[in-house]
Amino acid sequence: MGELAKWRDQKWVRIDSSGNIAGECGTSKNKKNPDRCLPLSKAKSLSKSERAATARKKKREGAKGKQVVSNTKAAKVQMAACGGEVRKNHKGCGAVMSDRRKKTRYA
């Protein structure tokens, strides 16, 4: 399954600047400076103040004309390379291949 298909399987929601879940992503009235969108599972894992902080950051930077605004550290969404599900503190999901390690040779 491709990355876009995995993204579509998640239910993304819109976060207003008060930190409330305000509906489905893409339903913002302000098309020039839309609200922050997050996967529902990620939005529910954050506190209301954390959701508000990332939404305010998006609105503040969007008002300056910035198109792409990164999430706050707490709201960062990471896709796992091996499973595709959203994980908060993803460290990796596979063994290091021994033949890929750097080898030092002494002559």
Secondary-structure map with pairings?
Blueprint: H1 3-9, E1 12-15, E2 21-24, E3 36-39, H2 40-45, H3 48-63, E4 78-79, E5 86-87
Antiparallel strand pairs: 1-2, 1-3, 4-5
Index terms:
alpha+beta, two-stranded antiparallel sheet, 107 residues, single chain, three-stranded antiparallel sheet
Main pleated-sheet profile: 3 strands, antiparallel
> What's the tally of helices?
3
Radius of gyration, taken over Cα atoms and rounded to an integer in Å? 18 Å
Strands of the biggest beta sheet: in what spatial order?
A: 2-1-3
Number of domains: 1
> What are the segments in which pLDDT stays under 50 over at least 5 consecutive residues?
86-90
Total DSSP E strands? 5
Mean pLDDT over all positions: 80
Content-based structural category: alpha+beta
- Approximate strand percentage: 5-15%
- How do the helices and strands follow one another from N- to C-terminus? HEEEHHEE
Description:
This protein is α+β, with helices and mostly antiparallel strands and 107 residues long. The chain has one domain. The strands form 2 sheets. The protein has a 3-stranded antiparallel β-sheet. The longest helix has 16 residues. The N and C termini lie far apart (47 Å). The relative contact order is 0.15.
